[in-house]
Amino acid sequence: MKKLKVILYVASMVALVSAASSQPVVVNPESAVSTVLLKTEKSWDGVRYAAYPAGQPEITVLKFIIPAHTTLPWHTHPMPNAAYVVSGTLEVENADGSRHRTLKAGDVLPEMVHAVHHGKTGDQPVELIVFYAGVKGQATAIAAPAPENLAKPHADLRP
């Protein structure tokens, strides 16, 4: 009798495992290895992104190594982009100085589009990986005059 119970138990377990393994399992293959670092509709200053540029899409990924004690030139970006800070500390600031943010290794920054801004490094070099979502042949950044030389207020620089 005991032997029969063991046989029935084993048979039921085999049936259960077989039934479970015959069902398709739907799993996102990236979910086990990915972490969302950034998902946003707005740049770091809170402005909602407009549309992507029209034309043949072109993704550009750049690696920047910015020396310590460097102030980057004032500039704009014509397309949405995001920067990942690999190492160092970077302070970013908009043209009128009303917005600034300090980034450290592991931080992700959704960049401003069509808005004048710049960055400054501290005592250590900064390594960034920047992902640009533009169109074929489009520049990733455009030089801008220093804020004191701007003819229009900061808010008017957006399309």
Structure description:
The protein has 159 residues and is an alpha+beta fold. The protein has a domain at 57-157: Jelly Rolls. The chain contains one helix and nine strands, in the order H-E-E-E-E-E-E-E-E-E. The strands form three sheets. A four-stranded antiparallel β-sheet has the order 1-8-3-6, with no helix packed on it. A three-stranded antiparallel β-sheet has the order 5-4-7, with no helix packed on it.
Describe the structure using short key phrases.
159 residues; alpha+beta; four-stranded antiparallel beta sheet; 1 helix; single chain; disordered C terminus
Low-confidence stretches: 4-20, 151-159
Rg calc: 26 Å
Number of DSSP strand runs:
9
Structural class: alpha+beta
